Amino acid sequence: MTPNTRYFWKVVAKNASASSTSPLWKFKTQAVISTFPWEMGFEGEDSLTININYPLLSGWTYPTTGSGSWHMNDHSTPNYAHQSTFCAYCTPWDSGYYTLMTPKFNIDAPKSLSFWWKSYVSGSVDSTFFEVTYDGGNTWQTLDTLTTAAAMQNYVREIYIINSGNNVYFRWRYYLAHIQGMINTNKFFLDDITVSNLDNTPEIHISPSLYNFRELFVNGTTTTKVVVSNWGNGALNISGLSINPPFSTTYTGSIIQPNASDTIEIRLNATETGTPSQTVTFNINGAFNGDNHLLLNATILANNPTLFEAFDAVSLTESIYKTQQHGLATSTFNIQQHIFGKLSLTTQLAMH
Questions:
Q1: Segment 253-273, tens digit of pLDDT
Q2: What's the DSSP call for residue 83?
């Protein structure tokens, strides 16, 4: 039978002259995860993983009654998710424990488990215990205590080695010491859970993977920073970037260890007008997982020697003074005065 599936059945008894039908019965098979790699990003078809109105759909368990629970919703503004728009989060109404538990796992060999989290409450008030059981919940082992000295603005990734077993569950047990006057506020966030085969292959992740530079005029320059992370289990050996003008970088490569990252500066040199677009490749030595490409877009505008000023609220002399104060005193400009949308005065001013 298929895991996490509802089945219906009945009995029909017949003889030579009559028949009798039983009531319609139903049952649901247990959700079991046994295919890897397995990922839970709470997106797409997984967007109903946590739903207190339909708690039996996914195989996950969480409080469905009482004060507060775990939830999952679209919090794109502000974006509470690590990636995309959905994540799991805990909203307690009172002090105490709030537990989110996965379905059953059948793990044939040791695996790597990782997830991303952040907390909006300091460790003096709350903690989240990440725990595993290998015997169906009779005994639990605490793998980590997730806490912070201050409210976190960014997610943090954790990685663990999980042993094999055919009755394995994971849970995040959030504990709030006291409510601190913050009733019904989101305090702990969880996203992008992965259980994968244990190997030494690095996995590259680039953030952002697409960047649109702001509009820039010819001869201008601007920069942005890209974070390259290693989500795998082996060292990520980057030998450099394949990048061409008008984009450039001084980055020549680095070795990024598992669960570490490096920050790279990308420069746009606006040499000519246009809308350049380029896919930059991160050159990696050896096998790797993930997407090693970065898409860059830009808009470069021509310099405009014409200054338009309505002069409705200030005098001509004051406007010229302000123009001089903004470093335009060495050029010659057409200053055109518009009143009620019509041209009334055109004057050539040579700034000195």
A1: 999 998 899 999 999 999 999
A2: S
